[in-house]
Write a structure and sequence with these properties.
The protein is an all-alpha fold. The protein has two domains: 237 residues, Citrate Synthase, domain 1 (Orthogonal Bundle); 98 residues, Cytochrome P450-Terp, domain 2 (Cytochrome p450-Terp, domain 2). It has 16 helices and three strands. A three-stranded antiparallel beta sheet has the order 1-2-3. Helix 10 crosses helix 16. The structure holds coenzyme A.
């Protein structure tokens, strides 16, 4: 047995998956064999969620049934609504999001049934209810009346409706829907691996998703979309951008929304998201963020050969849509629940306890001295 340390599991293949494939050399990402770009142009988020969870794109009847199941499960309990209402208003929405899924686990009658059928029923409930509870916190912390879900709205439209009380124009909804498709799944990233690790001890899906949310919160993972916005706000105006980024590189700072563990020549999701960011920016008459975006991006590529990841365009896009900055990563959550769930089900189907080794580098074996001798 080799005791070579592979910090960060760099380059280690830990299992097989049929859910998605990241091909960094050709800048490609597929879900169940379909290129994400193709899915973004031809499908809506519900179709992609069905695909990620079930392995195939739905036909009309399957989609209708899936949407009905989601719609039927969107309402949250009075208990959860009250919990959300009484969360400290200053809580980070990601901490609220993990608490929400944990509470859903307490309320679910099938929490401890890990059979594939029960897991799929639980997935539908988590997927349908989490956005409702997150949107409830979006309003409750501003002391605004909570808006319950509305029938006959798509997943994306309903989220806007529950947050703002209205649905924006179809181009904005499409941009949001595309972001959800791009965030749905990305193989063995940190949060997914966390979910699979929790699952590998035969723990339950609510626990695995709660842990995955905690992992996604970090700025090196999902939290980067928030950090991108903080960076753009610090830059303030396009005239400052060049100086700001040159200074950041001089100080060897990590520039959020850039770089990736797997993609080294660019993130396959960026061109699609960038296209929709530019559309939203045009609709909003934005001249500031789009310019800052282009300047920082070109300096990062020219000087460091480090390319943007998907969090770079989603940050300013969500800002222009009116979402509070600390809600960007919870939006990632409502989409990634699909990918995490598919991985949890896949892990259960062919489980092996995940238990790596470590190389000990602490003190040599020594004797315990009694308290009065130390
Ligand atoms: C995502 C990330 C953690 C990948 O890390 P990794 O695979 O471990 O790669 P490393 O951190 O070892 O980066 C390799 C080199 O590129 C540099 N680099 C990578 N990302 C960078 C960034 N965003 N800004 C500045 N330099 C960066 C590192 O400093 C390192 O340089 P060095 O070799 O001179 O020390 C890293 O790129 C990062 O911190 N990005 C910012 C956070 C972010 O956007 N996360 C979302 C990911 S989808």
């Amino acid at each position: 047995m080799s005791d070579e340390v592979k910090k960060g599991l760099l380059g280690i293949v830990v299992d097989e998956t049929t859910i998605s494939q990241v091909m960094p050399d050709i800048n490609s990402l597929t879900y169940r064999g379909y290129a994400v770009q193709d899915l973004c142009e031809k499908c809506n988020f519900e179709e992609v969620a069905y695909l990620v969870l079930n392995g195939e794109l739905p036909n009309k009847n399957q989609l209708k049934k899936f949407k009905n199941q989601i719609e039927k499960n969107r309402n949250i309990s009075i208990n959860l609504r009250e919990i959300v209402k009484h969360m400290p208003k200053k809580s980070h929405p990601m901490d609220v999001a993990r608490t929400i899924v944990s509470v859903l686990g307490l309320e679910d009658k099938e929490t401890n049934d890990n059979s594939p059928k029960a897991n799929m029923r639980k997935v539908i409930r988590i997927f349908a209810k989490t956005p409702t509870a997150i949107a409830a916190f979006f309003r409750a912390r501003k002391s605004k009346k909570i808006i319950p879900p509305k029938k006959n709205l798509s997943f994306a439209e309903n989220f806007f409706y529950m947050c703002f009380g209205k649905v924006p124009n179809k181009d904005i909804v499409k941009a949001f829907d595309v972001s959800l498709i791009l965030y749905a799944e990305h193989s063995f990233n940190v949060s997914t691996f966390t979910a699979r690790t929790i699952t590998s001890s035969l723990s339950d899906i609510h626990g695995a998703i709660t842990g995955a949310i905690a992992s996604l919160k970090g700025p090196l993972h999902g939290g980067a979309n928030e950090e991108v916005m903080h960076m753009m706000n610090k830059i303030k105006k396009p005239d400052n951008a060049l100086k700001w980024i040159n200074n950041a590189l001089k100080k060897k700072e990590v520039v959020m929304g850039f770089g990736h563990r797997v993609y080294k020549k660019g993130d396959s999701r960026v061109p699609t998201m960038e296209k929709y960011f530019k559309k939203v920016s045009k609709i909003n008459g934005d001249k500031k963020f789009i310019k800052i975006y282009d300047i920082v991006k070109s300096v990062m590529i020219e000087r460091k050969n480090i390319h943007p990841n998907v969090d770079y365009p989603t940050g300013p896009t969500y800002h222009l849509m009116g979402f509070d900055t600390d809600f960007f990563t919870p939006i990632f959550v409502i989409s990634r629940i699909t990918g995490w769930s598919a991985h949890i089900i896949e892990q259960h189907a062919a489980n092996k306890l995940i238990r790596p080794l470590s190389k000990y580098s602490g003190p040599d074996h020594r004797k315990v001295m009694l308290l009065n001798q130390r």
